[in-house]
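> example.struct
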C-alpha cells in the first residue's frame, strides 16, 4: 500500500513538472489551481462551520480540482493499486461537483459585482431597511447560498457523470453530396470517435457500443481516433470487443492524440489484431457495386513533434482519379486545408464541448468546428461529439455522447 502511494506521488509530481516545463500543458495545473482556490476561498472558507470541518473539506476540493493530473498519473503508473477503477470513478464524480461548484461560484460573484456596480451608478434602488431586517443574517445567507450552489453542483455533477459514462445515443444524419456516385447513394456509415477506453470506460461499455453498432447493420464503420487512455497490458481486454464490429465494407480508422500519448507503437499491432483497418497517411480502395470508394486516414496533428504529422497528399497518392473520397482525421481544425483532397471528411476530438461553458472555448480551438455537419468549400465535414469520454473530465451536460449514423445521398449540400 505504501509502495503504491509513493509510486503515485512520484507520478503525480512528474506530471506537474512536465506541465510546468511545457507552456502548452501549463493550462491544466493553472485551471486546476483556479478551481481549487476559488472553491476554497469563496465556497468553503466563508461558511459558518468549525475550522476543523473546513480543513477536512479542503481534501475533496483538492482531489476534485486536480483530478486531471491525478487521473493521468494514476493511469500511467507501473504499480497500479487494487480497486483503481472504483477509485477513479469516485474521483470523477467529486471532480464534476468541484468544477461545477467553482463555475457556479464564479457566476454568482459576477452577478454580485454587477449589482454593486449598478448600485454605485445609481441604476439600482437601495434595499429597504425593513426588508433587509427580514433577511437572515449574513453568515446564514452565505451558508444557504453556498450550500445551495453546492447542492446544485452535486445534482448537475451526478447527471453529467451519468451522461458521460452511460450508453451513447444513436444520432442519424443525412449528408447530401453533389459528387456522390449513384452506386453510393444511400450508403450507411457508422462513425465512432473518442472511445477513450480506460480505467473508467470499461469492457462492458465497449461491448454495449459494439452491439448497438452491429444492430444498425451499416455498410461501413469508421473510427476517428482516441481509442485508449493507457497501456495495452492494462486495457487490451477492455478493447477486445471492437473485434466484433462488422460491416460489408469493413472497419477503417485513423488514430488520435490520446493514442499517441498512450504509446502508439505498442497499440498499432493490437489494433490491427482486432481487425481495425488503421490508415496512417494512407488509403484503401473499396469496391461498392463496381464503383471505387476511397477511404484515407491521416496521422494525428500531435505526431508533428516526431516529424510524422498528417500528410493528405501522401495519404491519397496513387488513389484512382475521380473516385469518391472519404478522409478520416481526428482533429477537425484543418478542414479548410483538406477541402481539395476529399468529398467527405469525418472527425472527432471536440466531444462537442461537453458542457455549455466550455463550448465557446472548444469551438475557437477547433477553427469553429465543434459538432455536426458543415460545408467547407466543396467538401462536407461531419464532427462526431464523442462516443465515450476522457476519464480526466467525465462530464456531459446538454451534449450527449454519440454513435453517428450517416446516410449519404446525392444532391446539393443541405
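> example.seq
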Amino acid at each position: 500500500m505504501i509502495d503504491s502511494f509513493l509510486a503515485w506521488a512520484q507520478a503525480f509530481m512528474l506530471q506537474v513538472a512536465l506541465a510546468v516545463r511545457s507552456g502548452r500543458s501549463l493550462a491544466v495545473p493553472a485551471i486546476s489551481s483556479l478551481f481549487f482556490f476559488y472553491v476554497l476561498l469563496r465556497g468553503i472558507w466563508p461558511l459558518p462551520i468549525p475550522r476543523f470541518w473546513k480543513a477536512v473539506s479542503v481534501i475533496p476540493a483538492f482531489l476534485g480540482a486536480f483530478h486531471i493530473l491525478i487521473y493521468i498519473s494514476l493511469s500511467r503508473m507501473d504499480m497500479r493499486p487494487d480497486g483503481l477503477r472504483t477509485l477513479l470513478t469516485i474521483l470523477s464524480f467529486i471532480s464534476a461537483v468541484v468544477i461545477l461548484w467553482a463555475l457556479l461560484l464564479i457566476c454568482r460573484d459576477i452577478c454580485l459585482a454587477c449589482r454593486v456596480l449598478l448600485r454605485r451608478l445609481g441604476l439600482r434602488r437601495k434595499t429597504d431597511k425593513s426588508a433587509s431586517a427580514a433577511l437572515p443574517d449574513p453568515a446564514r445567507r452565505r451558508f444557504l447560498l453556498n450550500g445551495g450552489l453546492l447542492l446544485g453542483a452535486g445534482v448537475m455533477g451526478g447527471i453529467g457523470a451519468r451522461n458521460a459514462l452511460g450508453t451513447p445515443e444513436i444520432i442519424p444524419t443525412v449528408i447530401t453530396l453533389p459528387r456522390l456516385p449513384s452506386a453510393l447513394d444511400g450508403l450507411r456509415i457508422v462513425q465512432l470517435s473518442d472511445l477513450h477506453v480506460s480505467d473508467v470506460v470499461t469492457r462492458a461499455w465497449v461491448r454495449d457500443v459494439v452491439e448497438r453498432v452491429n444492430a444498425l447493420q451499416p455498410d461501413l464503420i469508421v473510427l476517428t481516433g482516441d481509442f485508449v487512455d493507457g497501456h495495452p497490458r492494462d486495457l487490451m481486454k477492455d478493447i477486445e470487443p471492437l473485434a466484433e464490429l462488422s460491416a460489408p465494407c469493413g472497419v477503417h480508422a485513423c488514430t488520435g492524440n490520446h493514442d499517441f500519448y498512450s504509446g502508439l507503437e505498442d497499440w498499432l499491432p493490437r489494433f490491427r489484431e482486432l481487425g481495425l483497418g488503421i490508415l496512417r497517411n494512407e488509403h484503401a480502395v473499396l469496391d461498392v457495386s463496381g464503383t471505387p470508394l476511397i477511404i484515407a486516414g491521416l496521422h494525428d496533428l500531435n505526431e508533428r513533434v516526431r516529424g510524422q504529422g498528417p500528410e493528405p497528399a501522401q495519404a491519397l497518392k496513387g488513389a484512382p482519379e475521380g473516385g469518391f473520397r472519404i478522409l478520416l482525421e481526428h482533429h477537425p481544425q484543418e478542414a479548410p486545408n483538406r477541402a481539395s483532397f476529399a468529398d467527405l471528411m469525418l472527425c472527432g476530438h471536440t466531444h462537442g464541448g461537453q458542457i455549455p461553458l466550455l463550448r465557446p472555448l472548444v469551438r475557437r480551438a477547433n477553427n469553429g468546428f465543434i459538432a455536426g455537419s458543415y460545408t467547407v468549400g466543396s467538401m462536407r465535414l461531419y464532427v462526431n461529439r464523442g462516443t465515450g469520454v476522457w476519464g480526466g473530465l467525465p462530464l456531459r451536460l446538454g451534449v450527449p455522447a454519440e454513435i453517428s449514423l450517416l446516410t449519404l445521398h446525392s444532391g446539393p449540400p443541405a
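> remarks
The CA atoms of residues 9 and 170 lie 41 Å apart.
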